[in-house]
Every structure is written in structure tokens, then in C-alpha cells.
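Researcher: Please translate sequence to C-alpha cells.
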Amino acid sequence: MNLLIMGLPGAGKGTQAAKIVEKFDVVHISTGDMFRAAMANQTEMGLLAKSYIDKGDLVPDEVTNGIVKERLAQEDIKEKGFLLDGYPRTIEQAHALDEALKNLGITLEGVINIEIDPAKLVERLSGRIIHRETGETFHKVFNPPAEGYDEKDYYQREDDKPESVKRRLEVNIAQGQPIIDHYRAAGLVHDIEGDQDIEVVFADIEKVLSKLQ
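Model: Translation complete:
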């Protein structure tokens, strides 16, 4: 099976990806892992990516696309199939992926799209607080400190503040929607309700993937 997994930050994509890989024995390809492996193995694209990263520059799309193509051409993908996680991030990358898969003779069979109301994700992502003295992390709703805790003893990172979280989600929605539309037009998207217990979400994914097998 050759799959993509998509969803906004905080939707539980990483958790579900790990479960899919374990249950269906496909190769998990995440962008970060790919970059690290390409640089460690000193592949042509890995060395090119390193030259940008070392200068503190953003890695251009053509290099990212090249690293993905290099990875998809490897033997384990032919044997097991893949679950691509964290790519494509833009519609241009989606078109590049289409082209790479076509050139490699690989068919994309499904896109798992984990959906959660963005307002709920703001609550989920902006609830993180950190204890000033110990650095221990808590969540105001899901994992609060002891009852009656003093808020002055805790702080929030800038990234975790509601305004920052909303902005991050808005950017992700703007970038992600054209990609979802692109794959939906190809009949590949399977929407999964993400605001459920982790095991229930996975059971829904399992039903979809069992039909694709």
C-alpha cells in the first residue's frame, strides 16, 4: 500500500502514523527522517540540502522533492509500500510527487485525512504550560497540575499562546486545502473524524485501509 497521511498540527497524525506502520507493515517516511538519512548517506540531494542548511537557508522545493524521489526509489518501498508523513506541504510539492511516482511506476492508493475542528485544536495546542522551577510540562485541560495551582508558577512559550496557535493553523489550512482538493479530485481522500478516542480513530482508519489492501 502506498499512502499519504494528512491533518493539521495537533490532529494526532504522528500517533496514527505509528499505528498504521505497525499494523500494515508499510515504510514510514517522514520529512525529517528523510533529510537526516540523505545527509548521513551523503546522497547527491542530501549533500545539496546540507549546503543550504549549513548556511541557515531554507531548502528549496526542488531539493526536497529530489530527496523524496531518492527515498521512494529504494528497495524497501518496492517491497512494502509507504506511508508519507509531512510531505507534500504545498500544492507545488504535490504536483512534484505525482510526477516522481509516475516516473517510478508507483501508484498512490489513498490519502488519510484526519479532520478536527480548528477551534478544538486551538484548545488542544494552546493549553500547554510549563512549571517555572522544574521545567515540567502540563496541559490546562488534559493534564493539569495539582488542583488549585497558582498560575504565576507557570508560563507559556510564545508558540503555545492561542494567537500563535491560530496563526499556525491558518497557515496550515491555507497550504493544505489545495492539496486535499487535488487528491479529492482524484478520488483518493478518506476523511477520518479525529476528535475521538485514539483507538476509535485508528479503528476507522483500519476499516479504510483493509478495503484498500
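Researcher: Any highlights?
Model: The chain has a mean pLDDT of 94.
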